[in-house]
Amino acid sequence: MNDMRRLILPALLLSAALALPGCGQEQAPESSFVLLDGSKLSSSQLKGKVTLVNFWATSCTTCVAEMPEVVATYQQYKDKGYDTLAVAMSYDPPSYVVNFTQTRQLPFKVAIDNTGAVAKAWGDVKLTPTTYLVNKRGEIVKRYVGTPDFNELHRLIEKLLAEA
Fold it and tell me: What is the average pLDDT across 75-80?
């Protein structure tokens, strides 16, 4: 009987977390992003908008390939309470990040994680692209490793934008 309880209780807790919106979601880690213009942005400042936090590198072919879709998603939802923050990995030379941002005319905030502290805080990100979708309450709703399914991502963004 004890074995059965050990199996049922976690299953009940998981189903409750999935059934109740906002339950079981992890708060975005407190971190400070250094933007290309030298200004700083804290993860607490992400609250109030649905935000895509994308860890990427100029040397990552998948990151470069998905960037037009990340830009298109930003353009589609930016006026509805959506934002994007692209975080370049610590090993990415800052001059490459600046050049990429300017030549591709990235319309959203770009940060450089010079020390690797931001990637570490966000779950020790090592693989790029790794993308997080954060709701208006500052909770991580979804994590993608690799290119997201953008149709699924758009449906999720629309659902989160509709929430109070």
Answer: 98
The mean per-residue pLDDT over the stretch 13-17 comes to: 37
Q: How many CB atoms lie within 10 A of CB 73?
A: 20
DSSP 8-state code for residue 28: P
Task: For 132-147, give the DSSP string.
Answer: EEE-TTSEEEEEEESS
Amino acid at site 105: Q
Say how far apart CA 30 and CA 149 lie, in whole Å: 27
Residue 19 contacts by C-beta under 8 Å, 6 or more apart in sequence?
none
Domain 26-162, CATH class in plain words: alpha beta
Contact present, 53 and 87 (Cβ < 8 Å): yes
Q: Are 25 and 135 in contact (CB under 8 A)?
A: yes
pLDDT at residue 20, rounded to an integer? 38
pLDDT in tens, 94-152: 999 999 999 999 999 999 999 999 999 999 999 999 999 999 999 999 999 999 999 99
Non-local (6+) Cβ contacts of 28 within 8 A are 43, 46, 53, 122, 132, 134, 138, 139, 140
